[in-house]
């Protein structure tokens, strides 16, 4: 915001503001003119703050609104019923959701069960990715919800996962969520967002609520 100089009229202030915004627009247009690459992105949502999966489902919703086809695999939260799923289930021609998880490791208390669930989900993820090759891709975007969690607990081979994601079809967008993203995943990604927790009602005794957490 431009500060008004003492004795300056509103008309002069408006003129200076307009001139400044014109310069900003010209500079931005010059930068945008250099951005000519179009490609599928590997997007990672990580960090300890709330909103990683929520943001990914928001991207999925945006994609659906643009007529795109979306595949979603839930590596952990498959046992949860969420509002996002209810909405996306209304677009069966555009959205495929596979809930492959059986809950967090402290809920299952069964390492072999967790490993089997992770491997099964990863196999489906690879099938979805492969279905996007060729002239008629099955999906434009694939969301791998909480993949970072199973990688953190070494339920899947990290090198294999990163290699497959890096070799994705050229125009396929892949969104990976979950805290504690591995450095290799971050390095491979085109876009990484870290959700930082500043404050959370859970710490004050507030339970998870409909429409906010699920």
Describe this structure in words.
The model has no long low-confidence stretch (mean pLDDT 89). Helix 3 (83-88) links the parallel strand 2 (70-74) and strand 3 (95-99). The chain has helices spanning 10-32, 52-65, 83-88, 105-108, 111-130, 147-152, 158-166, 183-188, and strands at residues 42-46, 70-74, 95-99, 141-145, 173-177, 191-194. Strands 3-2-4-5-1-6 form a six-stranded parallel sheet, with helices on both faces. The protein has 214 residues and is of the alpha/beta class. It is built from eight helices and six strands; from the N terminus they run αβαβαβααβααβαβ. The chain folds into two domains: 1-36; 42-204, 3-Layer(aba) Sandwich (Rossmann fold).
Average pLDDT, to the nearest integer? 89
The name CATH uses for the topology of the largest domain is Rossmann fold
Q: Write down the domain tally.
A: 2
How many separate helices? 8
> Which word captures the global form?
globular
Largest sheet: 6 strands, parallel
- Give a count of the beta strands, DSSP E runs of length 2 or more: 6
Give unreliable regions as ranges. Answer: none
- Cα end-to-end separation: 39 Å
CATH architecture of the largest domain, please? Answer: 3-Layer(aba) Sandwich
SSE succession: HEHEHEHHEHHEHE
């Amino acid at each position: 915001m431009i500060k008004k100089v003492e004795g300056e009229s509103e008309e002069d202030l408006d003129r200076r503001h307009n001139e400044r915004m014109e310069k900003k627009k010209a500079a931005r247009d010059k930068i945008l003119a250099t951005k000519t690459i179009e490609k599928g992105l590997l997007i990672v949502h990580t960090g300890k703050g709330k909103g990683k999966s929520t943001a990914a489902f928001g991207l999925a919703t945006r994609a659906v609104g643009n007529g795109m086809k979306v595949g979603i695999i839930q590596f952990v939260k498959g046992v949860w019923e969420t509002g996002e799923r209810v909405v996306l289930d209304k677009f069966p021609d555009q959205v495929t959701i596979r809930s492959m998880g059986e809950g967090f490791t402290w809920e299952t208390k069964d390492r072999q069960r967790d490993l089997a669930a992770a491997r099964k989900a990863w196999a489906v993820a690879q099938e979805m990715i492969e279905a996007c090759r060729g002239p008629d891709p099955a999906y434009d975007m694939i969301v791998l919800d909480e993949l970072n969690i199973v990688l953190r607990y070494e339920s899947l081979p990290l090198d294999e996962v990163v290699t497959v994601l890096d070799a994705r079809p050229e125009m396929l967008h892949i969104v990976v969520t979950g805290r504690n993203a591995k450095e290799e995943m971050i390095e491979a990604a085109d876009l990484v967002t870290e959700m930082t927790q500043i404050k959370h009602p859970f710490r004050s005794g507030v339970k998870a609520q409909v429409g906010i957490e699920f």
